[in-house]
Amino acid sequence: MDPPDPTRTAVYERALRTQTAIEGKCEMPRSMKLYSHALAPNPRRVRIFAAEKGIELALEDIDILAGQSRTPDFLAKNSSGGVPVLELDDGSYLSESVAICRYLEGLHPEPNLLGRDLREQAEIERWNRRMELELFAAIGRTVQHTSPIFQGRFKQFPEYGETQRALVYQRLERMDRELFGHEFVASDRFTIADITALVAIDIGGRLADIKIPPELTHLIHWHETVSTRPSAAA
């Protein structure tokens, strides 16, 4: 007996899967769910990343200020008690914004936001870490220790918060110099490093009155450019 023709077999299998789906005998893949919060910067980082790739996520808002991320049910999804959390198609959960972004990049490689080859991946990672550790973190500490939204939630040290605010403005000045002659933070195109810097600066402006000084023209141009991308509204 002749062996089966693999081409005809593949065609038959595709037709069978299509007919099965039509008849409702198999369940089509469902959208991934993102546990998010409208104000928090890390969920916004994932939403912008997904929007750039055209990935539709089912959003479920978690009121972190009301303690919804600290309930036993939510802690079973993420023991750190934070958002974002991505619920995958198989019902498992993935937390941490950059880890989620790496997962989404693997599913949808284009448009590329994390680097196309090893050298570019390392360069983008370098700049993204700088934006996280030197800008995002300092803005976060400024917000936590100076914003009324956190009063009564934990002990604030306003003087420490103001020292962090000073560090933020120093980093913004340096960022302005780094952007001279460059359209984006890490590459010749929009990447995760731009997303990280954008969400950091925006939350600083919203909750800690951190504004880009008018003399930082390169930084202002960059911020205007990335803020007008459709994904920035995600």
Architecture overview:
Helix 5 (118-146) packs antiparallel against helix 6 (158-178). The longest helix has 29 residues, at 118-146. The chain has 234 residues and is mainly α. The protein contains 8 helices and 4 strands, in the order αβαβαββααααα. It has a 4-stranded mixed β-sheet, with helices on one face. It has helices spanning 6-22, 41-53, 72-75, 97-107, 118-146, 158-178, 192-208, 217-227, and strands spanning 33-36, 58-61, 85-87, 93-95.
Name the overall outline.
globular
Task: State the distance separating the first and last CA atoms.
Answer: 59 Å
Q: How much of the polypeptide forms β-strand, as a percent range?
A: 5-15%
- The helix fraction, in percent, is 40-55%
Mean of residue pLDDT values:
90
Rg, nearest Å:
22 Å
Unreliable stretches: 1-29
**Strand-and-helix sequence, N→C?**
HEHEHEEHHHHH
Supply the key terms.
234 residues, mainly alpha, four-stranded mixed β-sheet, 4 strands, disordered N terminus
Q: Briefly, what is this?
A:
53% of the residues lie in helices and 6% in strands.
Architecture blueprint of SSEs:
Layout: H1 6-22, E1 33-36, H2 41-53, E2 58-61, H3 72-75, E3 85-87, E4 93-95, H4 97-107, H5 118-146, H6 158-178, H7 192-208, H8 217-227
Parallel strand pairs: 1-2
Antiparallel strand pairs: 1-3, 3-4
